[in-house]
Here is the input.
Amino acid sequence: MTLLSVENLSIRFGTPDGDVHAVNDVSFDIAAGETVALVGESGSGKSQIALSILGLLAPNARTSGRIMYGGRDLLSLKRRELNKVRAKEIAMIFQDPMSSLNPYMTIERQLNESLELHEGLRGAAARKRVLEVLDAVQIPDARNRLRAYPHEFSGGMRQRIVIAMALLCNPKLILADEPTTALDVTVQAQIMRLLDDIRRDMGTAILLITHDLGVVAGSCENTLVLYSGKVMEHAPTRALFAEPQHPYTRGLLRAVPNIHDEAGALHAIPGQPPNTMRALTGCPFAPRCVDAIAACHQIVPPLEGDALRQRACIRPVEELT
Amino acid sequence: MLQYTFRRTLAVLPTIICLIVICFFLMRLAPGGPFTSERPLPPAIMANVLERYGLDQPLHVQLWTYLKNIFFHFDFGPSFSQRDRDVNDIIAAGFPVTLTYGFWSAVFVLALGIPLGIIAALRQNSLWDYIMTGFAIFSQIFPNFVLAPLMVLTFTLAWGLLPGGGWNGGQWEYVIMPAVALGTSYLANVARITRSSLLEVLGAPYIRTARAKGLAERTILWRHALKPTLLPVISYMSPVFVYMITGSVFIDVFFSTGGIGQSFIDAAYTRDYSVILGLAILYSVLTFVLNLGVDLAYAAIDPKVRSGLK
Amino acid sequence: MTNPQTPEQTPDNPEHHPRTMFGARRQHEAAELAAAEEMIVSRSFWADARRRFVKNRMAMIGCFFVVLIFLFAAFGGVFAQYNIEEIDWSLLGKVETEGGPNLTNGHWFGVDELGRDLYARVVQGTRVSLLVGFVAGITSVMIGSIFGAIAGYYGGRTDQFIMAAYNITLSIPYIIFFVVWQAFFGRSVTQMVLVMILINWTAGLLITRGQVMTLKNREFVDAARMLGLSDLKIIARHILPNMLWVIVIYTSITIPDAIMMESLVSFLGVGIQEPQTSWGALISEGASTMTYGTLWQLMFPALFFAVNQISLYYIGDGLRDALDPKER
Here is the structure.
């Protein structure tokens, strides 16, 4: 059953120097209880997609397309209506746990305010629920740390609090924007396991946004590879890793450090991400693509394929190196 | 918190003693003094006068007596130029006056400046915002000593609304112009700082987190944004208080309020060293107390600073 | 995941200047090269800044007025029909009615309460205010940046000591300095400048300190240190040029501040002494007589003061916009 459906989403930012085309014609679905990964380099527009779902884009952003949830288009909802969806239906986990918690409020206040708003819970009832969730994200000695401020917790603990915050109202979908980037590797694994448990135990769908393919491999059913605001490839994660069909995906997979690789060489993709100040006139990856032919620079490749997997490349899979 | 206050007070004592010692020697060693006039006093009378004020003692004895009197008897000694008055009398008469309009001036600056800044930030680039910016530039250029005459010109001479000076026991008509003239420059700056601070806070990730919770914008402003917005304003008050003390000297002189500033300037003219020294100490202590207040207010808002104080 | 830049492309990669068998010689060349690159960067930086500044209309108008005021201070005296102390006995006692600005009797700006020519006095006041403001302002920032550079470069105890002095200076209301100093040493223009430097020695200190703290850890300073350059040479050749813009901005802020300070204390009568005068002293005289209706005595000096301050404000604003990388 489709929970959320992003249809032809484009996002532009108006700047004094012209429009930035951050997201170009992106479509995908998330089913209830499913985990979908959005993968791309920084600046590929992946975070903007998540922000647009909850209407949290910067004021200079303009959107087109639709984001359907529960029969309504989230992009056209009024702030008042949107506020009822936020946290209650769709919650978000932000990238940096250091700065996404308010340093001037106790964590209890930051947690119970959404309960107060969406569930009408106050006082002891709210505290009970807060403790429940803090236990669920494995914060030790939570009862005695309710009155503590964010700076009194470690980075990993803070990210757990941020996750707890997202879980409070039992949302149907959690948008996790690079939930582990700011953390140590060991803590990263713990947090990913936590998210996995949450999905299994509570049936929450997760949109995982990351630049780290390693994170995706273990935990997501479907993966979208984004480049310059455009979907390059969309496939079941296993299949994507086994046989990537887009040159960009191949480049990405080759760039992941592999301890089995004897030479230990890192295969970086040469060149720079393209300038998003111009509308697309060809494949955005063409300038860096080893397989590019002349046509790649002139035709914006459509996303084609079957229901299971699609890719945006005009060259047949067999011909690719 | 109490312990912190105590520690700070102990830490500032050396500074104040240093100030006293330097000023003390400066004034004893300086050429001339309150008793040097065009017509020199006969030696006998001079000796008499010197003895009366204890100036015949060796310097270190004088200094010791002076410090002892201040710290144990809270006595700043007699005025050299005003025969029957002690420095304590001068302070008792003038300090409440300066403190009164100074207090109202601070209230004026904060109670008006912060809301004005918030409005300007929420209506960024509106006409209101531009008016605020213009006002801020205006106040940079018209400091209190230009503003005060202009105000007297308008409100007293042209419209006859407010008295152009005097104190009259601190009736409100007499307090308004000193308080406003003293505060206006800082009001504009407080508004400007509040504006940019709020704009920065509203762009902070934790405000986005608050929005993602579905909170109304008004709730976000009061519950999440206000405290961090106030922090730069509070730190700014530290230099402002120092400037306002200097400004109060001008206000006392210009509006003839009878505050201590007038005595301070008069003392500079008559080289009344004990008054200069006494008031300089008073001003320094006042600065210290206000700064301490600023730091405590900051700690009250910022939990990180608060835990640092312990 | 991918790093879009291959390692070879990173310009500040240490591998760029490999330590080879040729040893110090090679290193030296590399450092020279790096220094040359810095210079090129900074040259285009200043050219860019100048272009941006010239394009700033308010700043250019400000410059225009400041130049006018300077010309007035320098050559205005030529047109004065009286000197600053001369009392026009013919106007004494009827200043309110006949002492106003007048083209026929040569009192272009009228006369003051004592019948002295206000034009000559405004020229004199402008000279003193500008002199005190610019000399004290520029010197203060120079001293402040030197101390800031020392504190930032050496850190440790030196830094603690300088910062303690900084905090103490800032926590004493400056009027105390003026009253105490002037009561003991008198009130000449030189004394005035000295006290103002004494009070303002902290100008720009904090910002240069922070700037040096970040600069001293940059590669080109490390390179210079490895070459055995002395601290003084490193500061003068590598650090100072890279924070010149901070100093320029701060100077442009400090000068109007100094003029303001001078005017306030002269207004209070603990500044410049008669027959010398300054904007503040003139405004004070004008303000004390405005009840008699002799408004020109307040308006002329106030106008000069205000135009000068507005102009300097916009020049400072323009410099900040042109030079501060954060503002762009």
